[in-house]
Amino acid sequence: MQPLIECVPNFSEGRRPDVIKQITDAIASVENVKLLDVDPGKATNRTVVTFVGPPDDVIEAAFRGIRKAAELIDMTKHQGEHPRMGATDVCPLIPISGISMEETVAFANQLAERVGRELQIPVYLYEAAARTPQRKNLAVIRAGEYEGFAQKIKQKDWKPDYGPAAIGTAGATVIGVRDFLIAYNINLNTQSVRRANSVAFDIRERGRVKRKGHPVTGEIVRDDEGNPVRIPGTLKGVKAIGWYIEEYGIAQVSMNITDIRAVPIHRAFEEARKSANKRGLIVTGSELVGMVPLKVLLDAGRYFLQKQKRSTGVSEKELVHIAVKSLGLDDLAPFDPQQKIIEYRLRDQANRLVDMNLSDFADLTASEAPAPGGGSIAAYVGALGAALGAMDANLSAGKRGWDHRVKYFSAYAETGQALKAKLLHLVDEDTAAFNKIMEAFRMPKSTDEEKKARTEAIRDATLYATEVPLRTMETAFAILDLCRAMVRNGNPNSITDAAVGALCARAAVHGAWLNVKINARDLKDAAKREAILEKGAAIVKKTDTAVAGIMRTVHRTLDA
Question: Which residues are catalytic?
C-alpha cells in the first residue's frame, strides 16, 4: 500500500478569499498532492485546509503553504474568536495508510526543521511528535496566544523545538502528528434527544455524572474536593452527545473518535447498538461525516464477516460493501465509496489496464502498441493464479462441516487477495516502466548538461524496468505456498483449481524472468546486474521444484 499522509493546517485567515486562494494554490502546486477541502470561517478568521498525498510531497506542500501564509498574514493585525499564535497556527500530519505513527513523526521533524531554518519561524512539536509531556497538548503550547508569545518564548521552558526564540509578524507554528479523527453519527428510531443522550453517556469516555438513587434526578455524588464523580463510558477517547436532526426527523448520537486503532467504527457502532437496545431503541444505521481511510471500512467488513463465521479473504470491493450495509451507512443518503474513502479519491483511474474489461485488454495486447507486453501479461497471469488460490480457500472455509477450520482457510484467502492486489498493481507498473524508458530516450541531448541528465534518466529507468518484473517473480512465487496448502488441505472438489493456480504462478515467474533478463542486459552496473540475475535464477529454480511437487500430489490424488 502506497504511504499516504493527510495534512490539516489551520491558517489565521478566514475573511479574505484572495489570500486564502494564494495559500491553497501554493499547496496544490505540488504534484501528487490532492486538495480535499478548504473550510474558511469569518467569525474565527481562520481557514482549515485538508490535503493528502505521499509523505515527501505532503511535506513540500505544507512548507509552501506555511511560507505563503507567512508572506500574506500579519499577526500584529489579526483578530478572531479562535485561539491562535501564528499565521499557520497548527499543522498536524496524520498517517493514512502504508506508514506508521513513528515514521510520520520523522516527517514532522523534517518539516519543522525546514520551517525554522528557512522561514525563521519558531516551531513547536505537539501530540505524537512532542519531545516533552508538557508539549503534547496544543492548548498548553498556545496559551497566551500571539500577543503573549513575545515574552513566553524567552522562557527556558518555552524555547522552540526549531527556529529562533523570537517572534515576528508570522508568529509561531505548532507542527505534530496525531491519529485520524472520525466524525461518526449513529441513527436512532426516536426523536428524543434525552434518550439519544443516554446512549451517548453510556459510550463516551467522559461518561455521566454519578447520582444517588434515580440516575437522572438523584443527588449528584461528589468527591472530597466537591467535584462531581463520573461513571466512565465504554469507549476510550470518544466524545459523544445526542441531538435531533430535523432534516431526517430522527435523533442521533454524534461522536468524535480520536483513536481509530483503539476504537474502530464497528466497535463504536456495536456499543451504541447495545446501549440503544437496553433502552428499547433501535439503531437504524449510521453516518460518516467527511472522508475516512480505506482501512476503516476494510476492518469493519472483516469484523462483520467474522461474526457470520465466513471467510474474510474476499475482495476489497466486497469488504467495503459488507461494511456499508452492516453499518447502515446508506440509511440517510446514498454512500459512494469513491467519494468517501480517501485512497479512492486519490486513485488515478485514467487509462489503467486493470480497469479494462477482458476483451478490451486482450485486444489492446494484440494491437500494434508495444505495451502492454509480456511483463504485464505475466503479472496478470500471476494475479489469476492468486485469485484461484483465494477462491479455493474461500470455498474450503464455506464447506459444510468445516466451521472449525474457517479461521485457517480465511487466513489463506486473505493472503491470496493481498497477492492478487500486488500483481494487479504490477500489471500497470510494468507498462509504466516501459514508458519511463521511452520517455528517457526522448529527452533532449544537445548540451553536455542535457546529455548527462538523459544518461542518468535512461540508467534509472532501465534499473526500474528490471526491478519491476523481479517483483512480479517474487510475488508470483509466494502464491505457491497458498496453492500447496489448498491442494493438501482444501476442499477436495477444488483441487484442480488450486493446481491451475500453481501453473499460473509458474507461468508468471518464467514470463517475468524473461523480462528481467532482457532489461538487465542494458544495466551498466555489472555488480547490480549480476545480483539481480542471481536472485531471479534462484526464484525460477525454487518455483519449478515447488510446482513439480504440487502437480505430483494433484495427479496422485486424481489417479487414485
Answer: 82, 430
